[in-house]
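Narrative summary of target 7.
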Amino acid sequence: MQTTLQFLIMVDGPLTAAELLDRIRTGLPDAVPHRRDSVHVRGNLLEINPNEGADPELAVTDEDDYLYFRWRVELTPMERSVGEEHQITLARELLRVIEGPQVRAIVCAAFEDRV
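Modeled conformation, tokenized:
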């Protein structure tokens, strides 16, 4: 496992963890259920966790607003075959399926400038 290939997607909006996971599973039908609020998807373990530092007001007003978003979607590569291009493609697809009306998402990664 290469830690530089791990990435986060910070998500803010009125979704519960179950609704966020459902959105991901609908948008990426190859995602396989793992444990509560997690799936295996494209060589990664994806886990949804509450952001302990979430703050609805700062999520709208702070310059680094994403630090205060409600959810942390954490992706950790589980297969050696996963490379940076693979992770960039996956991050783009996840943004596409997560974002929507009242839902914002931002990728935090070593390669975030390429997403």
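Helices lie at 17-27, 58-61, 84-98.
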